[in-house]
Amino acid sequence: MAAKGKSIKEFFHNRGLKCTPQRLAVLSILEESPKHLSIQEIHRRVKKILPDTGLATIYRTLEILVDLGLVLRVHQGDECQNYVMAPLGHQHPLVCTDCGKVLDFAECPMEDVAQRITEQTGFSVEKHFVQLFGKCRQCQAPL
Amino acid sequence: MAAKGKSIKEFFHNRGLKCTPQRLAVLSILEESPKHLSIQEIHRRVKKILPDTGLATIYRTLEILVDLGLVLRVHQGDECQNYVMAPLGHQHPLVCTDCGKVLDFAECPMEDVAQRITEQTGFSVEKHFVQLFGKCRQCQAPL
DNA sequence: GTTGGTGCAAACGCTTTGCATCCAT
DNA sequence: ATGGATGCAAAGCGTTTGCACCAAC
């Protein structure tokens, strides 16, 4: 996180994109949030830092960040517009259904499964989408 | 599928719901489709059988069918309003990104993973959402 | 005969778009 | 300086809702 400022800037520049305060704000908000956020919530938080930010900018920014692979879109039942920072390696979200917090787990059993599916059905698996839901340690604890 | 007509009817009645031609039409369309369908596509097909069917009915019907667990909502990238018949046992969809066809695979490695996650993090996994994407045998074949 | 279901059309709300302005480079 | 990014407001469009009528029970 320390040298992130510079590398992010380069990251944008290398792709012919500008590094704007709005984009940095969205990134920093997602980075600091343990749970996925809705577009509305992201907008609300960005406006605390940059009060004039329009909702359209949030939409445009998130689209770019998802394209860049920095941010992940999370689908949960009816809720299809939630976003989290993309984990660095290959990981999957572990979403707490109580508090909405998101952990990650790196272990991925899908490679093996994919292999077997290809052998059995001829279907070649190219990607997978996995999300786990449950209760985090705190939310399990009696209050 | 033979004695389905009667059991479906009872299925609705047992829940205080009526068994209408529109609901049966949606079910039969989903049953006969190997791939998931969008709301618009379902509407189009229902109208071939019942020309006066309104779009609102499709929305209302799908919501009920999903609640009943008969139908599954599929999320694929930006497309969040696609529906397939729910597989009977515990299965996961295998979606072909070319033709949209959906196969199922019953093998589920998640139980083991869930166990290990609980041991390592204290997070208790209650459910999981898994979708695989790739190319089915036909779509891999050279044309 | 009841009551839930349907069709229609209007309302709604989220998302996208056009355009003038601004600012990162 | 200049082209991409932003803010604003309007347009667009998928989804939901209200209500009168209809049909399953």
Folded structure, characterized:
The structure is a homodimer of 143-residue chains. Chain A is built from six helices and six strands, in the order ααβααββββαβα. By secondary structure, chain A is an alpha+beta fold. In chain A, the strands form two sheets. A three-stranded antiparallel β-sheet of chain A has the order 1-3-2. In chain A, strands 5-4-6 form a three-stranded mixed β-sheet. In chain A, a hairpin with a 2-residue loop joins strand 2 and strand 3 (79-85). In chain A, helix 2 packs across helix 3 and helix 2 (21-32) crosses helix 4 (55-68). Chain A binds chain B through residues 75, 77, 80, 94, 96-97, 103, 105, 107, 109-110, 112-114, 116-117, 121-137, 140, and chain B through 73, 75, 80, 94, 96-97, 103, 105, 107, 109-110, 112-114, 116-117, 121-137, 140. Chain A binds a DNA duplex (25 and 25 nucleotides) through residues 13, 16-20, 22-23, 39-40, 52-57, 59-61, 81.
List the helices and strands and how they pair.
The structure is a homodimer of 143-residue chains.
Chain A (H helix, E strand, L loop, with lengths): L3 H10 L7 H12 L4 E2 H11 L5 H14 L2 E6 L2 E7 L6 E5 L5 E4 L4 H12 L2 E12 L1 H4 L3
Parallel strand pairs in A: 4-6
Antiparallel strand pairs in A: 1-3, 2-3, 4-5
The first copy, chain A, binds a DNA duplex (25 and 25 nucleotides) through α4.
